[in-house]
Amino acid sequence: MIHEDVANTIDILLRSGHPNPQVRTVDEKGEVQITQEEPDITPNPASFGRNSGGIVQQPKGWRASGKMTPVTPFAGKRGSNLSSASEFDRLLDASWTQPEPKGDKIRVPGPNGEDFPVYIYPYGIGRSQLEQVIEVLNLPIVLTKDLDNADVVVALRSHLKNQSKLRQVAKMRQVPIHGVKSNTIPQITRTLQRLLGMDEAKTPETADLRLFTRGGNDDELEALEEARLAVEQIVLPKGQPVELLPRSPKVRKMQHELVEHYRLQSDSFGEEPNRRLRIYPA
């Protein structure tokens, strides 16, 4: 029995097919006779469910364990999703009014007859950054976790676009919303100052370094002072770019925010640990 194309025969066997080998025999005269054997492809019902050794194969996996369960009807799944959505909406509604210490709002008249302080409900903005700006600049602002107690909502614009529920709730309670472009100290500062009706200076004033420091340690203050002097003594008056000393990523972020306060552009360049800021004139 000869298989002319071994590779093709193996391929047929792997696909559970029946190969068609040659049968070669030698007759009485010594000549080779070649015949083609026809495979027996008649199915044998008794062989179904048996392996090649004739042993009955048992079902395996989930079918054998009896743990298979019917697929949940589509309507049931839909109802489950609706239930989950309702629960989410309930939790979201509850988040607008978080309990706070009881007490009446304390109001004092501002220089132009405003009612101070202003109660702000922050959304998507770092609370620690807000508190830092309010404390350093001594702004008449109080942060609240209760939307019902708020005079205004201050929200990050990118979050506000995707949060229609907040817009609906604020509109229903007649609470105005002010958007903040980015979660940086300069942007937060400008938003709060506009909210209070404070005139924005055409020329940025000397920055209070306490606004931009996180830990208030000497290394941070030294790096911020370096950036401030570079801006005020070289970049602004002379219109020349300046490169600062290498700093850590955390400190460079503070320097970037300080440069943004002066409405200038900056970027980081170089490889760690020598990566540093370059400040450009307007």
TrEMBL record:
SUPFAM superfamilies: R3H domain (SSF82708). It holds the Pfam family PTPase. GO terms for molecular function: nucleic acid binding. It comes from the Bacteria. Residues 218-282 form the R3H domain. InterPro entries: PTPase_dom (IPR058670), R3H_AAA (IPR034081), R3H_dom (IPR001374), R3H_dom_sf (IPR036867). Residues 35-82 are annotated as: Disordered. This is R3H domain-containing protein. It comes from Crocosphaera watsonii WH 0005.
